[in-house]
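Help! Submission page says 'invalid entity' but I think these are all valid:
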Amino acid sequence: MKPVLLWTDGVVLALLLALIWYARSVAKTPHLASTWRQAFRRPLGSAAATVLALFAIVGLLDCVHYREALPSASGEERAWSPETLSALDALLSHLRASRETTYSRPLALFGYEKQAIALADGRLERAYPRLLHAGTTLTGSGDALQEQWRTDVGRRSLLGLVGGALAMAVLILLTTWWQNWRMRTAQEAPRHNDLRAAWRAIARGQTSFPVRAVLITLGVVFLIGGPILSLSTQYHVFGTDRIGNDLLYRVLKSIRTALVIGTMTTLVTLPLSVGLGLIAGFVRGWVDEAIQYVYTVINSIPYVLLIAAAILLLIVFIDGHPDAFPTSAQRTDARLFFLCVILGLSSWTDLCRLVRGEVLKLRELDFVQAAQAFGVSNRRIMRVHLLPNVMHVVLINVVIRFSELVLAEATLSYVGVGVDPAMASFGTLINTARLELGRDPVIWWTLASAFAFLFALVLSANYFADAVRDAFDPRAAKLGGR
Amino acid sequence: MSSYILRRAGYALAVLFGVNLLTFVLFFAINTPDDQARLQLGRRVTAEAIERWKAEHGYDRPLFFNSAGQGLGRLTDTVFFDTSRRAMSFDFGRTNEGVNIGEEIRQRLIPSLLIGAQVFVLAISAAVLMALGLALFRATNLDAVGVAVLVAMMSISTLFYIIVGQFVVGRVLQITPVSGFAPGGRAETFLVLPIIVLVLSYLGPEARLFRTVFLEELGKDYVRTARAKGLSEWVVLGRHVLRNSLIPIVTSSGTLLPAVITSTIVTETFFAIPGLGNFTIEGITQQDFGIVRAMVFVGSVLYILSYLIVDVVYTMVDPRIRLR
């Protein structure tokens, strides 16, 4: 096994480290810590954060890449498989290996299209072929098979539900124990174990942190995920796509793409937008005019067209330099990386304008005036006095932009300037689903599964963004500005 | 007021120059004429063939500065000056298939403008109405449910609205044609579905934003005065709050413009409407740089023009600007 660090993996790693560093600095700053605590104290915010965290785990697992060693005779130089795999691929190896020939309905036993099948006596018959990797334990035929299928699916779903419920029960027990420990360490509570009181506090929603909301969210995820997990060992729970890939696998692989675009794009251009916004607002004069002119120009080009132009050039470049990107994973990854950069370069203007507006207000305040009177250098004023005070604008913008960018990816991939068509993403899934709806019988499952996951991701991102905004911008919270 | 608009128009021209420069850098400085020739003629091509191709397209001159020229010719006898001059008169040369791009754009402009303008106006009106309704029932369960629905609506990709709308209305219910376009009076039968679908897709974010604007206005003193006079809640909202909220509404409608242009591009291909969006997608899939470059320019011109219109509307609703 040979670990592979793709460009976007590197950025994700850097982001993760930055996030840890930020969390540590928040923990050290009392007022920031209390504001963040407020964001998580809202049940909706915590529930949304839980869902996002689950998505993030899947995405991070998909960021650990490696290439397997090819079997080779001893003494020869080790050769590596041309296929780049991730930790998620390894976990879902049974889904990846269970390729059929073409479409099949969710949970189906038979294929979508009739095929010529050779009978035992050598004749050919047109019939729906049995799927290779669905219900392999079922041996009957005709109505008996249908009956077996029904009981098998029922049994497996039940098993999954029970498994999910069991996992939930363990989780509830652990949480109650933790809550009990918290209540014990808090001073006003009795100093002996009282699990029942702890459970009452959780169930009534009287805990300082909305434990109940998180537990309910996880419970729903477990109860849905359990049956899917247990069914996926024998069936294609979401069906298969045109070339027979399991859709559950494709959808899970899409999560990483969405997360990378949602986070990387804003963060890559953060220095540009915040830096220029600070300078424009603080220095004013012709510098301000020039920066405003630049962002008006960039804003004036509809972003799809600007990205279309840039991606077209990029495709030509990648095609022209095949040596620089030896594996297909590196090629698709380079395109994803540059897509984020281009998307960021064409959309940093919003944040720049917001920061500039905020700095224009701040620079008239007494503490900045005082710093100037003391002869503090401009650079230091911007870094020490202004930057921390515009961070809330930046933060709110970053979380709000996340869901917009995830949705934008879908549109861009549809137009043909998004991620590489070979890369799993919600955009490419929707793009194929468009033509499938026109077929008879309708192939609805690609669209449905992409919709379910994309909707869950964006909805929780939106609610989390609301919680963060309400915590950092109390004026918006007072208006109930949802 | 006229001096303000004149100033804005002058700035718009300056911005247009910037857009032109940026697209030129993208298409000629990064992707040099030699690269373009190689893309067109194939990778194995002689140097003479490249020179001939460049001469045919007028790209055999320096990009920005012709040191061999005389006087003003140093600046005018360049690829940049030539392409800029022709772009200003909407002459973008020919596509790879030999179709005149400028002519094609003129023909395709009407359907795109029809969709874009109607979507823009209808989306804002629908969002204002919805937000007014929610503001009327503020702090009730109806408001909470309404806001939750809006958040859910804004979490759905525009593509889903288009795909599902086309499937349900066009294919299952067969109320409108699934796709296609006919010029003239029958155009609306083909456009009604795309327009409704797009308006729905904007309702979530816009109505939510306008609701916040209304709630902010409702907290102000003049509202209390109006209520103290005994005006009904409808009159307070419909007459006083709505008028005062117009300024933020007009401002935010300006930010809706690029989104409308984007979604028009996407919608046209779904519904097979022969507009500018379809042309753009053609250019992208065929890797035709001429089309994409022309569309970047035309798209920006449309954006700048509509923003100028928003500016003019702004002077109408905000007396502080009118008096400047």
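Support: the input was valid. A stray whitespace character was the problem, and the output above is from the cleaned input. Strands of chain A lie at 2-4, 65-69, 80-86, 115-118, 124-127.
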